[in-house]
Structures are given as structure tokens and as C-alpha cells.
Write a structure and sequence with these properties.
The complex is a heterodimer. Chain A has one helix and eight strands; from the N terminus they run H-E-E-E-E-E-E-E-E. Chain A is mainly beta. Chain A has two domains: 19-67, no CATH class; 69-142, Beta Barrel (OB fold (Dihydrolipoamide Acetyltransferase, E2P)). In chain A, strand 5 (93-100) and strand 6 (105-109) form a beta hairpin. The radius of gyration of chain A is 16 Å and the shape is globular. Chain B is of the alpha/beta class. Chain B has a single domain (7-118, 223-399), classed as Peroxisomal Thiolase, Chain A, domain 1, CATH 3.40.47. Chain B is globular and about 55 Å long. The chains are: A mainly beta, B alpha/beta. The A-B interface holds A 1, 13, 15-20, 23, 49, 74-87, 90, 93, 95-97, 105-109, 120-121, 131, 134, 136, 138 and B 133-135, 139, 141-142, 144, 146-156, 158-159, 162-167, 170, 212-216, 218, 262-266, 269. The structure holds zinc ion (ZN).
């Protein structure tokens, strides 16, 4: 790998999702600078992405709780070619999977990193990224 | 549990892989009929004997695909199935056909996957543009991919496979030359396959490593080349197989496993679904990895082959790099993998890509592989992979 600079913020987020009613509390929390995660009242499992039933026991008794959002980098890649034309304004985007301390993994991308500074297993914290009407949950080194 | 091994693949048809189809364009429904007719002729089975079919999708029809095909081909079938497992579909088609035959539902089943271009519409009404721009991810409202994956740029295949490779490197180490050797060894076989898109283009390890990185650590020459083509097979009962034209390839075992769509939600990205699928296939067949004469492993990327060798049990976990360094994987080698060149060497004709592995397994068992015919090809292992290694299937075929 070379030591070229990582992507500069702010990143464009050209594909902004339409929130679903089930996940609206998650998006509302992000807009307020919090990470809220569903917690199963039956079996204790933390659930991501937001669902109508627990992904471990299928219980509908899921409760929103605020977490720190801290986690560990599970894997990543640097997209030397845009994954889709919509991301052509974001060269060398660092795509990532982060594992939350609560257990679930999530799809995200990294901000405030250099290529040499990315390491699987590194600690990461949320980077709240305003995109259109929504805030995306991106990550940065802790 | 499982099959008795009383159904066999007895005929096949395979179209040349082409970057751009040179011949006349036909609708996929027409291609389906052409492929089916050729495969039936290869087996020596008459069209009126067909009483089962297995398909994937059809560009002309979003729904009611099996009935549309039966009607078009003039078949009356007791078993009709549409498989939706991405690249794992062809292997999934074979075992479903075998299972239906062993249940006594039918005794001649055609499975076809056409992948040539269709006639250009005179009145263009939106091809599947959405699919083209978002890969195999659904961008429909309410799709988890639309809400939680695509907005971050996690689209299509390259980045997902790259993240699997990066995780593998972090857990087990990395040797880019070993990965490149998979592509180079397979190219040796492709150079002996007249249907391969790269039949005339040699490839060395250094060539692979000199090609550009698309998503770290994957080089562009470690990725399949999209192309056009198509293939079909005919599966029949042991009784009917006795009077066909070539050596039957009996379906002795199969397995299939899936648990997620997007790789981010895998429990463990580097212990892949082919593990439980292969375990079931071997247990069902009573055949062991050491009995296998050749592997036809779904190879959308080199990393897919590496992980399939490990997780299917041909070497230990984390030993794949050393295994690849130690063995010649070409048809001339001591551990033949993808003797047709794989999709890396032959090209990936869309959904029919996985069928190249199935057809090559049968071709080797039937002794019809020409220059690249193996001396011994009685037991062949085939894998199929869909999505980001999110759905995988295994098949054990045996000549008898
Ligand atoms: Zn639960």
C-alpha cells in the first residue's frame, strides 16, 4: 500500500435511504448524535439492523436502548474504483464492517483515517455523517 | 438422510463463452429451448419424455417462469422449480432435479441457463437498470440493503470479496502470489478449452500481480470476466440412464447452506457456507475428500477458490495458501481444480457461470474433455457460490 491520504471529508452520500417505520427511531437517534440499538427483552440479544422481531429468538419484544456506538474494525477494503457510479465523487472510499461492542456487525465506511492507519481489530467510534435529510453512521478511529 | 444416488446427469449442452455474442440474437425463452434440445440430443432422449424442469429467471417473464417455459417447449411436467441462489443456482438445480427423480415425481428433468443477449427492443421500455447500478442488492424501499448497506457504498461484489480477503489475511496471513497462482493455473487449463474466452491468452502470476488493484487486495485479473453463453443439462433416473449415449454421472451427494444476504451480517466471514454444504454432501455420498479426482469450484474470485478448498475439507483451515503453493491446479497437475479454466479462464456467462463447473464435471466423468481429459475422473466435487459467498452449494458426481 502507498501512503496517500484517505478520503477528505465531507463525503458525498448520493444514495440516501428512505427510512422504514421500524427503523425510524434508529435514524432519529443518529440525527440527535446518538446510537440507539434494539435489545431483546426475551433473550437479551442486541439486534442490528433494526427489525420487527429479534434475530435470535423471533420475539417481538425489542426495546430501543442508547449505546456508545464503540466497536472494533472487523474488516475493510479501499475501493480503488467506485462501487457504483453514484460514488464516483468519493475515490478510495474505505468500506468497512464494524463489530459493535454489543455484538452485532454493521456495514459502514471510515472517515479520518490514512491508508497506513487502518488495521483490522482497531478500536473505532461513530462519525455522524449528515447526508441530505439523514445522518449516516460512519466510523473513525477511537 | 439424502439421495440414494439413483439419478444421473446424462447429457449437456454448452455454448462458447464470448465477450460479445457474434451470432443472431434470440429471446431467452428461445435460448432455453435451443439449449434444452441440444442437451436432450446429447443424451439421446426424446423431447416428449421430458416431465420435469428447473430454471432460474427469464428476462421475458418476471413471474410464472416454469409454466412459461413448459408451454413454450411443449412439455407436460410433474415437477417445476425456479431456483434463486445467484451463482449457486446451477448446483442447486442439479440436486433438486435428482431429488424429484428419486421421489418418483418425474424421470427426465431439463435444467437450463441461457445467457446470450436478447434482441434489442424496438420500443425500449427500461431494461433492469436498477439491477445494473446496484449489483445484486435490492434498492427497493423496505429492503435492508437499501436502508443499511447501499447508502455506505456497499454495492456489488468486488468490495465484499475484498473484505473477505482482508479478514482472511488478518487471521491467517497472506500470499498474493499464491492467490495469483490460482488464476494462472486455471488459465493453463483455459488455454486447452476451445470454448474459453481466454483460450488464446496465457497468464502468469506476475501478469496477475501487475494488473491494477480494484479493491484491496484484489487485482482485476483475480476477478471473472463477464461474458455471454449458456448451458443446459439433462438429469434422469438410473433405469433411463442405462440407455443413454454417454457414461452417466450419478448425483451421489449434495448440500446447500445460507444464512445471510449481505456479508456484513455473517457470523464469521472466513468460515464460509460451503463448509456445512460440503460436509452434508460427503456424508450423504459416503465419499471422502481423498476420493475426489477433480474439483470444479465456483471461482468468481481467487479468494473464493482458496476458501472453498479449505472449508470443503481439501486442506485444513488456514492451510490454503500452502496447499495452493504445493499443488499444480491445472488439468496436468496433481490436484486438478477447474479443469475447464474455471470462470476466471472461461469467462462468466452471467447466471450460467456456475453451470460451466457442472458441465465440466460431467464432461470429465464422460471422458469427453479432449486435450484436458484427466486419466481418472470417477468422483468429481462441484461447488456453487452466490452473492458474497452468502449462499453456497456442493455436489458430488460419480461416474458408473
Ligand atoms: Zn431475542
Amino acid at each position: 500500500m502507498t501512503t496517500t491520504a484517505a478520503p477528505q471529508q465531507p463525503q458525498p452520500a448520493p444514495i440516501v435511504p428512505d427510512p422504514t417505520p421500524t427503523a425510524q427511531p434508529f435514524w432519529d437517534a443518529l440525527a440527535a448524535g446518538r446510537v440507539d440499538l434494539q435489545h431483546c427483552a426475551e433473550c437479551g440479544q442486541w439486534v442490528y439492523y433494526p427489525r420487527s422481531r429479534c434475530s435470535a429468538c423471533m420475539s417481538p419484544n425489542l426495546v430501543w436502548e442508547t449505546i456508545s456506538g464503540a466497536g472494533t474494525l472487523y474488516t475493510y477494503t479501499i475501493a480503488r474504483q467506485p462501487t457504483t457510479p453514484a460514488f464516483s465523487e468519493a475515490p478510495d472510499l474505505v468500506l468497512a464492517v464494524v463489530q459493535l461492542d454489543e455484538g452485532p456487525k454493521l456495514t459502514t465506511s471510515l472517515e479520518n483515517v490514512t491508508e497506513d492507519g487502518v488495521r483490522i481489530g482497531m478500536r473505532v467510534k461513530p462519525y455522524f455523517h449528515r447526508a441530505g435529510d439523514l445522518t449516516l453512521l460512519r466510523y473513525q478511529p477511537a | 438422510m439424502g439421495l440414494r444416488g439413483d439419478a444421473a446427469v446424462v447429457g449437456w449442452a454448452e455454448w462458447e463463452s464470448e465477450r460479445k455474442h457474434a451470432g443472431v440474437r434470440a429471446f431467452q425463452l428461445e435460448q432455453w429451448a435451443d439449449l434444452a434440445a441440444s442437451a436432450l440430443a446429447d443424451a439421446g432422449i426424446a423431447a416428449h419424455e421430458v416431465n420435469g424442469l428447473v430454471c432460474c429467471d427469464l428476462r421475458e417473464s418476471t413471474d410464472f417462469v416454469p409454466a412459461t417455459i413448459a408451454e413454450y417447449c411443449g412439455w407436460r411436467v410433474n415437477f417445476a422449480e425456479r431456483v434463486d441462489l445467484g451463482g449457486a443456482s446451477p448446483v442447486g438445480m442439479v440436486w433438486r432435479a435428482a431429488a424429484a427423480i428419486e421421489l418418483g415425481l418425474c424421470d427426465v428433468v431439463v435444467c437450463a441457463v441461457p445467457a446470450r443477449p436478447r434482441p434489442r427492443p424496438t420500443n425500449p421500455r427500461g431494461p433492469r437498470q436498477d439491477w445494473l447500478t446496484t449489483g445484486a442488492s435490492s434498492n427497493e424501499w423496505g429492503s435492508p440493503q437499501a436502508e443499511f448497506d447501499i447508502p455506505y457504498g456497499n454495492i456489488a461484489q468486488n468490495a465484499g470479496y475484498a473484505m473477505i480477503a482482508q479478514r482472511y489475511a488478518a487471521e491467517f496471513g497472506w500470499d498474493e502470489r499464491a492467490l495469483a497462482k490460482i488464476a494462472a493455473d486455471q488459465r493453463t487449463s483455459a488455454n486447452a478449452n476451445p470454448l474459453a474466452v481466454f483460450r488464446d491468452v496465457p497468464l502468469s502470476i506476475d501478469d496477475v500481480l501487475a494488473s491494477k488493484v480494484v479493491a484491496d487486495p484484489i487485482h482485476v485479473l483475480e476477478i471473472v470476466m463477464p461474458c455471454q453463453g449458456g448451458a443446459a443439462i439433462v438429469v434422469t433416473s438410473r433405469d433411463r440412464a442405462a440407455s443413454t449415449r454417454h457414461r452417466p454421472a450419478f448425483v451421489r451427494g449434495f448440500g446447500e447452506h445460507l444464512a445471510y444476504k449481505t456479508h456484513s451480517y455473517a457470523d464469521d466471514l472466513v468460515r464460509t457456507p460451503i463448509g456445512p454444504a460440503a460436509q452434508q454432501a460427503f456424508a450423504m455420498s459416503g465419499i471422502f475428500p481423498g476420493d475426489i479426482d477433480a474439483c470444479q469450484l465456483y471461482d468468481c474470485y481467487t479468494i473464493t477458490v482458496l476458501l472453498s478448498l479449505e472449508d470443503a475439507g481439501f486442506c485444513g483451515k488456514g492451510e490454503g495458501l500452502e496447499f495452493v503453493r504445493r499443488h499444480d491446479l491445472s488439468y496436468r497437475g496433481d490436484f486438478p481444480v477447474n479443469t475447464h479454466g474455471g470462470q476466471l479462464g472461461m469467462g462468466q456467462p452471467g447466471m450460467a457461470g456456475g453451470m460451466t463447473q457442472v458441465v465440466e464435471a460431467i464432461r470429465q466423468i464422460q471422458g469427453r474433455a479432449g486435450e484436458r481429459q484427466l486419466r481418472r475422473a470417477d468422483n468429481v466435487f462441484v461447488s456453487g457460490t452466490g452473492g458474497i459467498m452468502s449462499e453456497q452449494s456442493a455436489l458430488i458426481l460419480q461416474g458408473a
